[in-house]
Amino acid sequence: MEATGVRAEILLESVLAASLHDASGHLASGRQLIEATITDPTNHIHDESGLYRMDDGRADIAFRPALNEPAGKWRIRLVERQTGLGVTQSIRVN
């Protein structure tokens, strides 16, 4: 399998959807390991950062900032471990 990209999408305020696509644009089959790094506006790594298993190119990652977490622009970095493909996306937390 030649992977072409990792994508991140905010489905709800509490779920990040990650996907891995092959060279033909289809979801990658099998299991993959993805590393998620979620950082707040002060560059502190959030507790829900870590390794997640993707099944057939998909993974849902919980994202539930506490009420006392800093507001502002948060960064989500996803890297698929085998290929090294990654994506960084921002989300605004108010």
What report would you give on this structure?
The protein has 94 residues and is mainly β. The chain has strands at 3-12, 15-22, 31-39, 50-55, 58-62, 72-80, 86-93. It contains no helices and seven strands. The strands form two sheets. A four-stranded antiparallel sheet has the order 4-3-6-7, with no helix packed on it. Strands 1-2-5 form a three-stranded antiparallel sheet, with no helix packed on it. The chain is elongated and about 40 Å long. The mean pLDDT is 86.
In short:
This protein has 94 residues and is an all-beta fold.
Chain-wise SSE layout:
Blueprint: E1 3-12, E2 15-22, E3 31-39, E4 50-55, E5 58-62, E6 72-80, E7 86-93
Q: Describe the sheet with the most strands.
A: 4 strands, antiparallel
> Class by helix and strand content?
mainly beta
Unreliably modeled segments: none
**From N to C, what is the helix and strand string?**
EEEEEEE
Mean pLDDT: 86
Shape: elongated
Q: How many helices in DSSP terms?
A: 0
Strand order of the largest sheet: 4-3-6-7
